[in-house]
Amino acid sequence: MNNSKEVQLKLMKGLLDLIVLQFLSSQPMHGYQIITRIRKNFGVYFGPSTIYPLLNALEKSGYVKSEWDMNNERPRKVYKLTTEGQNLLNFTEDSLNFICKKIGATGIPKGFTMEDNITQPALHSLLKKMKESPNLSL
After folding, report:
1. Which of 63, 66, 18 is nearest to 42 (CA)?
2. Cβ pair 64, 80 in contact under 8 A
3. Roughly what angle, to the nearest 10 degrees, separates helices 3-26 and 122-132?
4. What's the gap between Cα 67 and its chain centre?
5. What angle in degrees, to the nearest 10, is found between the helix axes of 3-26 and 31-42?
6. What pTM, to 2 d.p., does this model score?
7. pLDDT tens digits for 56-110?
8. Sign of the torsion angle spanned by Cα atoms 54, 31, 16, 60
9. CA atoms of 8 and 66, how far apart (whole Å)
10. Distance between alpha carbon 90 and the CA centroid of its chain, in Å?
11. Which CATH number fits domain 3-132: 3.40.50.300, 3.10.129.10, 1.20.1250.20, 1.10.10.10?
12. Phi and psi (nearest 5°) for 17?
């Protein structure tokens, strides 16, 4: 793996909880939806053995809550962002923006979602590069 891919993978691992919270801020999702959305947006595969323990930890911390959806042929546990989770997401975005400011970059706007079609230097371009990079596998 070359250096840029290694850096991207480390950033993805380090920001995975933030990414999951960001996805859940736009809509409730089950684990498989999160897995496929990460792969679609970033080209990185984090499997069930990574995502479900993360979701359980986020739920234990009070950042997400889950409910069983029994309306489909297969029951699914659906995760929703809590108020505490939104507060953590806001604080993390503020912290990342503070860091970007200190290093002379713009940062990300409040309420940024992966679907937003905005052009921001700093983290937006970093996330975009990660999304456009060749598929990485864990």
Report:
1. 18
2. yes
3. 110
4. 20
5. 130
6. 0.73
7. 999 999 999 999 999 988 899 999 999 999 999 999 888 888 888 888 766 555 5
8. negative
9. 30
10. 13
11. 1.10.10.10
12. -65, -40
SS3 66: strand
Tokens representing residue 117 in the block: 């079609």
- Amino acid identity of 103? I
Q: How far apart are CA 49 and CA 51, in angstroms?
A: 6
- C-alpha 41/C-alpha 59 separation (Å) is 24
Phi, psi angle pair for 85, to nearest 5°? -65, -40
Given a contact cutoff of 8 angstroms between Cβ atoms, the answer to whether 28 and 21 are in contact is: no
Tally of residues, the chain:
138
Q: How confident is the model at residue 113 (pLDDT cuts 50, 70, 90)?
A: low
Show the CA angle centred on residue 116, arms to residues 126 and 40, nearest 5°: 65
Cα–Cα distance measured from residue 122 to residue 9, given in angstroms and rounded to the nearest whole number: 17
